[in-house]
Design brief:
Strand order of the largest sheet of chain A: 1-2
Largest sheet of chain B: 2 strands, antiparallel
Strand order of the largest sheet of chain B: 1-2
Strand content of chain A: under 5%
Structural class of chain A: mainly alpha
Radius of gyration of chain A: 23 Å
Number of strands of chain A: 2
Organism (chain A): Dreissena polymorpha
Order of helices and strands of chain A: HHHHHHHHHHHEE
Radius of gyration of chain B: 35 Å
Helix content of chain B: over 70%
Protein name (chain A): CTLH domain-containing protein
Shape of chain B: elongated
Distance between the termini of chain A: 31 Å
Number of strands of chain B: 4
Largest interface: A-B, 19 and 23 residues
Largest sheet of chain A: 2 strands, antiparallel
Number of helices of chain B: 40
Structural class of chain B: mainly alpha
Pfam families (chain A): CTLH, LisH
Helix content of chain A: 55-70%
InterPro entries (chain A): CRA_dom, CTLH/CRA, CTLH_C, LisH, Ubq-SigPath_Reg
Oligomer: heterodimer
């Protein structure tokens, strides 16, 4: 990576105008090979096996791991995204028998998701039973999860739980959240794709500049890369 | 799904199946069991209550049982070990460890790894297992051989061995098996979760073991010696936990004599790292471990102490430790541990202060003058917690080497009572340091000697002087010596009465020359001050003279004889006591001999001083004494000695000659 931007030392409240900014940006070149590595890293971390395979053929970048190892993680993620939590747990226990013993908080989130699925199916009694049998123990071990548990159980109090204040738990992106958490645990290392880390760094830098009240062109939309002139 | 809607009552069915004679159903039952217990402590206990451990052991022991069943059994056992401390105790009590160790001989890699995982978990959380791998000679060799095979075996074996090297015999055995070079290779492998237990293992294997330190010092990977590798692992971009263990290994290498304290890897890398760990922005765990390791390192060398004392306001930082009072709960894998941070922080700080102030007075001054520090030390002495009291004593001992700086503390804060209490009621291992502290503090002859005596110091010291251990005897008699310096007659009498002349004279024939010296020192102190001399010689004159003869006629180092002659000189100062010497021809002849003693002039000086006191003009009977000694040839002898080149002797001789009127 090239060195960071070299700003001229003008007065702090002078700030930078958009034109100058864009000029400075265009003076920096990020190599294609580096870009490709970032993309491959993203695909492997998130478990997009077919895409990773195709990308390998097209770009010539070698993935950091054997792509067949992705199969297990992909299957587990699919089970969760389909709401088959217990099946996912069984798979995890077969492949990584120590994982859920070591990370009880993760286990709680998986069990909580199963509870949510029971509630979604309207199986109230089964849900209560499950909560009593399995989740009470989580609360004893780790009192800080009690509030999360309460919110989940509160869904049972509503005729139409998806319209309740905790309805967001029933959204399908909640499954996605749990799947990502589990994926990260399986990968053990920092499972955030490096691309995501870069974007976080960008956002953090903007925040720091804002704190010091410096005028500069901000990136307002990460997805499109839109940069707006300072006001 | 197997257990989705399973009621608790149905569980009994699965347990029955496991105990039954229906092998075709066992696989399903084990699968159910595995999914039931993973992550669930209640289910683990439930399984134990249903007698699952012996059943699993049956499969594990049976080498002919189907491999897939044995594997599941090992995995389930591993999950049980992730339960509560009681679960682990049950596993150990039921003999799981030896079964699992035997399992390591299996050719099935997956099975071996599952056994290792379970063993690793047990060893990490149960401190009683440390010696189990040494029960059969081949176990350790097998472990070392298996270790390099995979990341799993590396991590597990390193953890198991790290938990098993507390005793020197264990350390030696591990080194003999060639463990150290293998560990060094793994350290270079850059797999974090392997590096950490490897570091802990290295720390355990070199601690206080000079031979292992030498092996570790020269171990290399790709021509990079281990100490250099460790320096890399102490860099700031590493995690704190890695920095601190790497620093520990280097500190132990220094303590074991393999690395000099002046080695830049120690003084410029390890020392600053440990000081960093003490700072406020670290966790309490790191603070405690950092301070304790720092204390260990600083004890090795005065230069390290000097550098540390000016590093990063360390004294102030450590003083902050003393203010902690919390008890915190730590959750690890469903196990709750209560740690009293107040106690841990205090004892770590006291240890560090003790080491910092070990050699340099200027550092001790800084420590003593730190606000409220001495108050905390006294509170620590009074603490009911032995860990804190022991550390506080060590701190006070170190600081007591500059006892004059402690004058206010002794007066204001009352260290005597808690100190006596520790000596009289505390554990044996604290006696040497506590009694040394007492000796040092007694040097300070402030008015508060009253309260020392009130606390029963004399009997405490007399008891120590009667102990079989030479270091304790020494402290006892040394303390009495310090106590009697320039003290009132009634105290001197009390001392002699308490210790008794028999014990006193037995100490004069002690095999330890230091003890003899201090006993003589005590006698000298007792016999200082004209009035006291006559009083004491009046009561014990014969025994004292006998003792003097005994030493002068025996084989003793020069210093001992010199001290004895000084005592004789003191006796010669007493108005009535003089007669005891004058009436003893043999003694007078001895004195004349010592006046001519070569080559060591100190004996001559002492002898002349004695003669000088005997003939001191202006005192009753001086003329008669002078005549008698002159007749024996003393005056002539003195005249001859005037030609000495030694200035001190010359002065003494001249003074003596002047007495002859």
């Amino acid at each position: 990576m090239e060195r960071g931007l070299l700003l001229e030392r003008g007065p702090v409240d002078g700030g930078v105008e958009k034109e100058e900014w864009m000029e400075l940006l265009s003076g920096h070149h990020v190599g294609r090979a580096e870009m490709n590595k970032l993309i491959m890293n993203y695909l492997v971390t998130e478990g997009f096996k077919e895409s990773a395979e195709k990308f390998r053929l097209e770009s010539g970048i070698q993935p950091s791991i054997d792509l067949n190892e992705l199969d297990d993680r992909i299957k587990i993620r699919e089970e969760i995204q389909n709401g088959n939590i217990e099946s996912a747990i069984t798979m995890v226990n077969n492949l990584h028998p120590e994982l859920l013993d070591n990370d009880r908080y993760l286990y709680f989130h998986l069990q909580q998701q199963h509870l949510i699925e029971l509630i979604r199916d309207g199986r109230v009694e089964a849900a209560l039973d499950y909560a009593q049998t399995h989740l009470a123990e989580r609360g004893e071990e780790n009192p800080s999860i009690l509030s999360e548990l309460e919110r989940t159980l509160a869904l049972l109090a509503f005729e139409e739980p998806e319209k309740s204040p905790f309805g967001d738990l029933l959204l399908l992106c909640q499954r996605q959240k749990v799947a990502s958490e589990l994926n990260a645990a399986i990968l053990e290392t920092d499972a955030t794709p490096k691309l995501a880390n870069l974007l976080k760094l960008l956002l953090w830098s903007q925040e720091e500049l804002d704190k010091k009240k410096i005028r500069y062109p901000r990136m307002t939309d990460i997805a499109t890369g839109t940069i707006e002139a300072p006001k | 799904m197997l257990f989705a809607s399973m009621e608790i009552d149905d569980q009994g069915g699965w347990f029955d199946t496991l105990h039954s004679d229906e092998p075709e159903k066992w696989q399903d039952a084990l699968l159910w069991l595995k999914n039931s217990v993973i992550g669930n402590n209640k289910q683990k206990q439930n399984a134990i209550n249903h007698g699952i451990i012996p059943r699993l052991l049956q499969w594990l022991v049976d080498g002919d049982a189907p491999q897939h069943l044995r594997l599941e059994a090992a995995i389930i056992m591993g999950s049980m070990a992730k339960g509560t401390a009681e679960n682990i105790n049950t596993l150990v009590e039921e003999g799981c460890v030896s079964v699992l160790l035997k399992g390591l001989k299996s050719p099935d890699q997956a099975f071996v790894e599952s056994c290792l995982r379970c063993l690793r978990t047990i060893f990490l959380h149960n401190s009683n297992c440390g010696s189990l791998i040494y029960q059969e000679p081949s176990i350790v060799e097998d472990l070392v051989e298996i270790m390099p095979r995979s990341v799993c075996t590396q991590e597990c074996v390193a953890n198991i061995l790290a938990s098993s090297c507390k005793e020197p015999e264990h350390q030696s055995k591990l080194c003999e098996c060639g463990l150290i070079p293998k560990l060094v290779d793994l350290l270079a492998g850059k797999v974090y979760k392997v590096q950490m237990p490897v570091l802990k293992c290295l720390a355990g294997i070199v601690r206080e073991n000079g031979e292992n330190c030498v092996v570790a010092l020269t171990a290399m990977h790709n021509n990079v010696p281990l100490p250099d590798m460790l320096v890399q692992l102490m860099l700031r971009d590493r995690t704190s936990e890695m920095q601190i263990v790497a620093a520990k290994v280097l500190a132990y290498l220094c303590g074991g004599g393999a690395l000099a304290p002046q080695d830049p890897r120690i003084i410029s890398k390890t020392l600053p790292c440990l000081i960093r760990m003490c700072s406020r922005d670290r966790t309490l765990e790191e603070n405690v471990e950092g301070a304790e390791t720092l204390a260990y390192l600083l004890e090795q060398d005065g230069e390290l102490q000097r550098v540390a004392a000016v590093s990063d306001h360390i004294i102030k930082t450590l003083a902050e430790y003393l203010k902690y009072t919390d008890v915190q709960q730590i959750n690890r894998c469903g196990k709750r541990i209560d740690i009293n941070w107040g106690i841990e922080m205090k004892q770590a700080a006291f240890k560090a202060f003790a080491a910092l102030g070990a050699n340099e007075e200027s550092i001790r001054k800084q420590v003593i003058e730190t606000e409220h520090l001495m108050e905390y030390v006294v509170v620590g002495l009074n603490s009911g917690n032995m860990k804190v009291a022991a550390a506080a004593i060590r701190c006070l001992h170190s600081l007591s080497r500059s006892v004059q700086l402690l004058r206010t503390t002794i007066q204001d804060h009352g260290v005597w009572k808690p100190l006596m209490k520790i000596i009289q009621e505390g554990p044996e291992e604290l006696l040497p340091v506590a009694s040394s502290t007492l000796c040092n503090l007694l040097l300070e002859f402030s008015p508060s000697k009253e309260c020392i005596l009130d606390c029963g110091a004399i009997s405490v010291l007399v008891n120590l002087a009667a102990r079989p251990e030479p270091n304790l005897r020494l402290n006892g008699i040394w303390g009495l010596m310090n106590l009697t310096f320039q003290v009132e007659q009634k105290v001197k009498t009390k001392v002699v009465e308490s210790i008794g002349t028999e014990r006193l004279f037995r100490l004069l024939s002690d095999p330890d020359a230091n003890i003899v010296m201090k006993t003589l020192g005590l006698l000298r102190n007792l016999l200082s001050n004209k009035l006291h001399i006559d009083h004491i010689m009046g009561m014990y004159g014969n025994q004292i003279m006998q003792a003097v003869v005994f030493i002068l006629e025996g084989e003793h180092p020069i210093q001992v004889k010199e001290q004895t002659l000084c005592i004789l000189a003191n006796v010669a100062d007493g108005d009535k006591a003089k007669d005891l010497i004058m009436g003893n021809e043999d003694m007078l002849k001895k004195l004349m001999n010592y006046m001519q003693y070569q080559p060591d002039v100190s004996l001559q000086i002492a002898a002349v001083a004695c003669i000088s006191n005997l003939i001191w003009s202006g005192e009753d009977g001086a003329c008669a004494r002078q005549a008698k000694l002159s007749e024996m040839g003393v005056q002539t002898l003195l005249q001859k000695l005037l030609s000495t080149t030694d200035t001190v002797l010359f002065e003494k001789v001249r003074t003596a000659v002047q007495q002859f009127s």
